[in-house]
Amino acid sequence: MTIRLCILAGLGLAGLLAPCAAARPAPSWTADIAIEHAELRRTTLEDWSGAALQLGRRTETGRLVWARAEWSQRFGAQDSFLQLGLQDQFAGGVGSLAIGSAFGGDFREDLDVRLAWTRPAWRPDQGPGGLDLDLTARIADYGDGAVTVLAPGLVHYLRDRDAWLSVSPILVRGSEGRWESGLAVRGDVGLDANWRLRGGASFAPEVEAGKVAWTRGLEIGARRKFGPDRELGWTVTHVDRSGSYARTGLTLSLRQRF
Hints:
This is YaiO family outer membrane beta-barrel protein. The protein is mainly beta. The protein is built from 1 helix and 14 strands.
């Protein structure tokens, strides 16, 4: 517990010591609120529900610091999860670090460390589009052993329209030491100045309450801007967990910049 508190406090201090934002055209603060509910089938387990609040601050140098609090109800129990994160320019790309903990939760992580790095891999000589290299890694400890997730991938930005498509292999190592692999494909497209659609499919192992199981997942969502500083989102997901249950969830989100 003491180590986790020290790490979290260190991230928070790094954010507070970041250069203060001067007058700039873009908003420097962002608030994200999300509410979700998932219906479970092929099981006697209760349906899931949850809510999250995230506050972020971007400095004039482009550094982003955020804090996130989540409440979840699953398996007849409730957990609260706290996370601090930092994003900045790194090695020619954008890197981020996030550390969180449920502090003795029933099904969330005792310690969760997430690393991500995105770097342009190719750009055309003229015009938009191109290819990015995306690397993400996660180490989670649920109290009975660590779980490692690696997801290297490529993100292709279409040249003729505001859209991107990503392909990412997913590698998961459970606490028993065995590696499993899968694949995820995702995309995002802008319909006009206000509407965006996204979707994805995955055939990969998933970590839940420290257990790894093979899943098939589908996701579709939409985002709608209301002015330059407000955005509403809707996401529907369906996950079929091999040998267990299936769940269908709806998430409503609001992003406010100020």
